[in-house]
């Protein structure tokens, strides 16, 4: 496995962690759909300019159709799920469902990539996900009964969030199987932007207000998105996908921490037990998937 590609996966995780603070202020100017559509459009153009024109020749139809559809579906479904949330608590629960994808990626790698694992990969994945739940909920956990009531009150949003988690887990594995050569990541990003623009003009009532701060944030967020997804794609194709996926459990935790620094609201003491559970769970997943 390519160690440099693995390092790129770690860089992608760190960049994703930086995106929360930028997206929050950008959405105030462009609206949720406008912000997401602008980000993916700008990032697609940036990746295109950096890597050159993507070529469809020689690419597997399965990669273009299956991986492309999964990529676009994940981005759009998660955006819609968050947009349909009825409250902040519901947004939190939808986010937790979305962060099932690292666990699902490892689970899907067993049949799809014929990954040989030891028995403790399951408790490791459970422990890491429990750490995510602990940290994001402020150490209070999630009320299961309330969660079920919320699912019945907004089944579309919860279905989209779970579908997004499954889609990204499948994409992360299948891109390793079907991709040939450099891939067509710019086209996937631009296709996502096109779908989100269609949704924006169809459903959004928020008018885009392009101020200079918004333009600066958009360019910064576009660059972060472009670099992070390009790094992730390379890591999934050539790097230690299992290790990178295990480390991806840090994404929601590090995102909250960085956003706390940016907004001068550092997480409380209840945040750190969640970090510990994620670290131990990720290490268990990694050791369980290492060569015998």
Automatic annotation (TrEMBL):
**Gene from which this protein is expressed:** yddG
- Keywords from the UniProt entry: Cell membrane, Membrane, Transmembrane, Transmembrane helix
Record's bilayer topology term:
Multi-pass membrane protein
Record's family? Belongs to the drug/metabolite transporter (DMT) superfamily. 10 TMS drug/metabolite exporter (DME) (TC 2.A.7.3) family.
Where is this chain primarily localised? membrane
State one Pfam family annotation. EamA
Transmembrane regions listed in the UniProt entry: 33-50, 62-84, 96-113, 120-136, 156-175, 187-204, 210-229, 241-263, 269-288
Q: Which stretches make up the EamA domain?
A: 158-285
- Where is the protein situated, by its record's location annotation? Cell membrane
> Do you know which InterPro entries this protein is assigned to?
AA-Vitamin_Transporters, EamA_dom, EmrE-like
- Please give the name of this protein: Threonine/homoserine exporter RhtA
